[in-house]
Design brief:
It is built from six helices and five strands. By secondary structure, the protein is α/β, with parallel strands linked by helices. It has a single domain, classed as Protein tyrosine phosphatase superfamily (Protein-Tyrosine Phosphatase, Chain A, Alpha-Beta Complex). Residues 2-108 form the Beta-lactamase hydrolase-like protein phosphatase-like domain.
Length: 136
């Protein structure tokens, strides 16, 4: 499990497994956001399996699946709302963490964060959001 912080509140990762949820909660995360549609790949755990483990660990679980076609301002607003409702640190995941990072980047742009700061934050986490930021 490779958790990558984007800021002091939000981290991203690739697909999490149901058995990893307890460790995620022990690390202090209170909200888990799934940005991956169910059934995207064979053997992928369904969101409900993850959500059940998250609830048992005392975490909130949010299902906000996105694809290339649905990754945009509306999804970014929903993502920002889920973070805003959280009472602590948030872990967002998808297949590799890229979609979750893109949603965070778009949501922060909508809040007026400078592009250079977002570019640095995402690069530190190992994600190149230049294309997204250059076209925003």
């Amino acid at each position: 499990m490779d958790l990558k912080p984007l800021d002091d509140r939000v981290s991203v990762s690739g697909q999490v497994a149901p058995g990893e949820i307890g460790e995620i909660a022990r690390r202090g995360f209170t909200t888990l956001i799934c940005n991956r549609p169910d059934g995207e790949a064979p053997g992928q755990p369904r969101f409900e399996e993850i959500a059940e483990q998250a609830r048992e660990a005392g975490m909130e679980a949010v299902f906000l699946p996105v694809t290339g076609a649905t990754l945009g301002p509306a999804a970014a607003r929903q993502f920002a709302d889920a973070i805003g409702r959280s009472d602590g640190p948030v872990l967002a995941y998808c297949r590799t963490g890229t979609r979750s990072t893109a949603l965070w980047t778009l949501s922060r742009l909508m809040e007026g964060d400078p592009k250079d700061r977002l570019r640095e934050s995402t690069a530190r986490a190992g994600y190149d959001m230049s294309g997204l930021l250059d076209n925003a």
